[in-house]
Amino acid sequence: MGWGTGGGSGLCGATRDPPGVMLAGSRAPLDTASLPLPCPRQVSKKLTVIVEDRNDNAPVFKGLPYETSIPENMMAGSIIYTVSATDADTGNSAKVSYSILEVIPDNAKNFWLFYILPNGSMVLNGSLDYATNTFYQLKILAKDGGGLLHGVMVVQNSTTYLSITVLDLPNLNPRFLNEPYSGSVPENCPLGVTVLTVTAMDRDTGVNDEIFYSITNASVPFAINTTTGIITVSGWLDREQLPSEEVLLEVQAREKNLDIHGMVAQASTLVTILVVDVNDNKPEFYQCSLPSCNFTESQSNFTGSIIEHSSSKVPVSNLSIVAHDPDKGINSTFELYLQGGSASAFTVSPTRIVGTGEVQILVQNPSAVDYEISHVMVVQLIANDTGNPANCCSVATVTIDLIDTNDHFPEFPQSIYSLNVMENSPEGTVIAPNITAYDPDSGAYGQITYQLLPETIHETFTVNATSGAVLVATGASLDRETRSIYYANIQAKDGGGMVSTALLEISVLDENDNAPIVTGSYFISVEEGQNVSTQIKAIDNDEAGTPNSKLGFRILPGLFSNNFTINETTGQMHNTEPLDREALDDKDGQLVVTVEVYDHGVPPLSTLVNVTITVGDINDNTPVFLEQSYEFSIFESSADSFVGSVVATDADKTEINFRISFRLQSGSGSSNFLIRSYKLGPGNYSGQLSLDPDTTMDYDTLQQKSFSLVVLAENTATDSIRDASVPVVVHILDVNDEPPSIVPASQNVTVSENGTQQGLVYTVGAADPDTNHSLVIEKLQVTCLKDSTSAGDVCWDWFVLLPNGSVLVNSSEIDFELCDTVKLTLRAEDLYTEKGDRYSKNGTLTINIKDINDNAPVFLPVSGTFVVVPEISPVDLQVATVRATDVDSGLGGTITFSIFKVEVSGNNRTLENLFKVVTTVEQNNYIGSIQVASNLDSTLKGQYQVTVMAQDGAAPQHTAQTVLNIFTVDQSYRIRLQFVTSVEEVQSNLEEIKATLTLATKAAVYVVGIYSAEDSRAARAQVKSVMEAYFVYSDGTALDVSDLIRMIQSDPQLLAALVKLGLAVIGPGEVTEPSKETQMIGIIAGLAAFLVLFILIMTLVLVFTTRSYKRKLNSMKALKAATTLSPAVAQQGAGIPGTNQYNAEGANPMLNLPMDLSHDLGFHEDTSSLASVNSLDENKVDSPKDNNLKTKVPGGESRVPSARPLCCGTGAAGALVSPSRHCPGSSGEGWGCRRPCLCPCPQPLTTLPSCSWANHIPRTPLRTRYWWPP
């Protein structure tokens, strides 16, 4: 409040005389002392303001951006980079700490690959591999030590990224691309011809070292370019001189520089080169007989003999000539012919040979073979290789000695005999029963004996010397494929030695005695997973065009026969499923499929050919350990560092793919061991685990008695590392010389009360550092505690301890409320102790009894009385409190209060939402604050009976209830106190006024309001402000005006104090009544509402009247149209129930809308199929079936209704019109206006000039039915 500065009673130090206080019931004013006025004072002082720092700055990184590059072999523990951030704050808020939030690429291994020191130095925590990751990005968090900001503890932070590039180092061997390699080159090709190119690459892609190539084979006719890998011919190639037509090269690729271990980085591969045959050999002649020829030395001179005048086709005797060409296939085909002066007398057989064949010189012109002309005839035998013009021919000189004969020859009836014999016929087979000659000589000269010439034919055929029968000779072997026709002279010799001959042409008939011959060799190389396709080629030397030479193909059953299929006609073979190198036992990855090539002769003959397929290996298998786990034991301080061996295999078949290296995975204790890899065999490697020489194992000081290691077996043949792991446990053995111990010394377990948990509840852990021990657990003491104080021996039999440390529940009477903690004092004994103390130090097992919700909440007694003054009780005002406890713990002891119901005394009505309860906790008690939830009825007298429910928080939930009586103080106890001071002065002195009144009455003062006296009708001239209040005791009673006046007057000192505070008059509270002005305003508002309602009603009447007039106007138009149109011309359409059809214009008289006659109106509820409610229910109009609605009329004819006027009678609606009356305006045609009709018209017909249905439809409800008269 302020003070004035003018004169009069407002001067500083002056006194003022307040008016007297008029108490209710008394007219005499009270004497009061003069009150001094206060004086204003001024003072000044210099203040020093200290600005405290707040944590409003985040750390700021310096030197951004952060980027670095490190080699992939950087050692773990090396510092990679150092980041730095500063914080502008002071104190703890300026202390910056660092951490790594994220590592990209994001995986668990990468996250632990780095760590950061408090000074911001980034440290490598593992090993790097360029092949796995070439780049890392670390998200780094810098945060300060935290501090206050706006009254809240805040930690500021900033983030940035560190980019790390991994530099590749040469640590991997090169690798050949597109293996396997194979090529071909023709023999005799020029030196330097390119065969193929091999390519290898450095798997250290970041280094990409230069590769050099070399061939490691010795003495091969091929060379390789050291830099490009191009393989060329370096020596003369002669297929016939090579051991095999396939040359296998081993090519090595070597990197230019040594790897990081100082070793040469290299790899090898195999290259198969096929030397293709060319026609570079001419045929040669050899003096031998098949099949015993070795073709070592060729001959150019041969000698034979023949009898003069021998018949044509007779071979020269004593000749053994074999022609041979060492080329292959078609290159070995050559022709034979004769040259020289005697060539016309002879011919050669055969004239064409493939590879190797026997050669005969046959007589062609017998007359030229004349001993008297020449004793010796010489011919040149030419072998011509037509496919090799440059070196085509070989020439052999054949000298033929002629044998002289007598002059008279025996004569044969035929000069030539054509005979047939099956090949392979047994000896003695008769070819011709008798071939005889006639000799005119007589005597001994006429006695003819027969023999076959030449002598060589005797090995094959023989003749009976007397009968001339030709037979197969003893020991002869007839083979059509070797020789299909034989020519021989059958000689008839008389006694004088004169002979004659006849030619025997013996054709050897084919028998299926030759198996098919497979041409070529079949060696195929593919990578596993690829397809194989090849064609088997074969020939059969049996007679062409016969079943004996017709070939078929099939695969014989075998290990791999089901993996392939072959076309039985063409010999095309391919695999039926992908090939798996690991399924092959052969070390070279070869599988052999046997194909049978058979002919169709009887019996069929066949030849087997092996198709050898080399399946190249790819790295598609991961190493596998032979055991699922390994366990080794070593004695402490053992002199032998060897621990044990692990063995792993890799199913791949090549060394580059099955090579395995072992390493120990980083982990606890792994640094104490080393592992080395040893090759046991192909794909079989051993990892020799040993102690690190720098590590000593002292069993007594070791923290770990066994080490759990993880050994990794890795195969790095491909870009993606294939590895396997196996757990290895290494036990350190010891002598039993240490005492056991309870581990841990203090152990805890929780058991539920009331027998809800039975059987084994815990196993006490005991340990002995010795490896060979037998421990038993003993119970020494049982201690029962409740809230950390002794509970006696209530729990001594609740649990039992077994020697193995098992703790069992031994009682169903475990009660948390009696004892919440059971402590067992234990010790362990080692039965195998050899020396030293066999007992452990005492240990403790603390069994915490777990409380279950088995107790309901309990309300504490309420000592006070609760009172509420509705008029001044705002929402959230606390009017009462309850207290409750629950001896359970946890959620079972947590109590939540709620209002169950609220009733008013003397009234059975239950009230809702009047009160609410707020639950708080104070020590072990829960307090429910009953608060006002909505406005209370200030006129209500009596008390509220509030039922409060307490519910615990665990299942099964328990509840309890209590009833509170809250007394109400109604408006009759409101007291009005008038003050001579202003409202502002009363408000400023309110606490003092209330304290003085409470001191005078011993009652609580509830102030309703303070307002100006001008707002009150009872204001007096001296009164400036009014305060209304209630005076209520804790037992629910209140003071009225007389009681308050009496109490104040009884204490003059307190009365003087109240008068000093401005109190003037005390009276009853004012009940507000409406003023005349308020009543007048209400009346005016009511009249205005009535006027608005009246205007609304009149507007609706006007609208409906307008609509009715429009309907009547349309009806008149319809009537006029109906009287001018005949029914036949009238527009037809479906009727609307409740109306009189349509008018002639197609308008609906009810809706005043033009209608589409083809449209279904859908007035289903108004169709005339529904019965009427009046007495003429039998008169109905059937529901329209189509657009031509027809109505039955008397006489049986059907008429189509058209628009027409509705007939009206004189009676009530629906009455029958007198027969003398007819429809007005009827023309006597069409419709039955000659008949009486029904009408709901309310007026007699005589009162209307014309009773049109349109005049009355508006008065008829929409659902009124109309019927045509029957």
Automatic annotation (TrEMBL):
Cadherin domain mapped to chain residues: 62-176, 177-285, 298-412, 413-518, 518-625, 626-742, 743-859, 869-979
Keywords (A to Z) from UniProt: Calcium, Cell adhesion, Cell membrane, Membrane, Phosphoprotein, Repeat, Signal, Transmembrane, Transmembrane helix
InterPro entries recorded: Cadherin-like_dom, Cadherin-like_sf, Cadherin_CS
Domain of life, per lineage: Eukaryota
Main location: membrane
Membrane topology designation: Single-pass type I membrane protein
Basic and acidic residues compositional bias, start-end: 1177-1189
CDD domains in the record: Cadherin_repeat
Gene Ontology biological process terms from the UniProt entry: homophilic cell adhesion via plasma membrane adhesion molecules
UniProt GO molecular function: calcium ion binding
Calcium keyword on record: yes
Compartments, as annotated in UniProt: Cell membrane
SUPFAM superfamilies reported for this sequence: Cadherin-like
Residue numbers spanned by region Disordered: 1177-1198
Name recorded for this polypeptide: Cadherin related family member 2
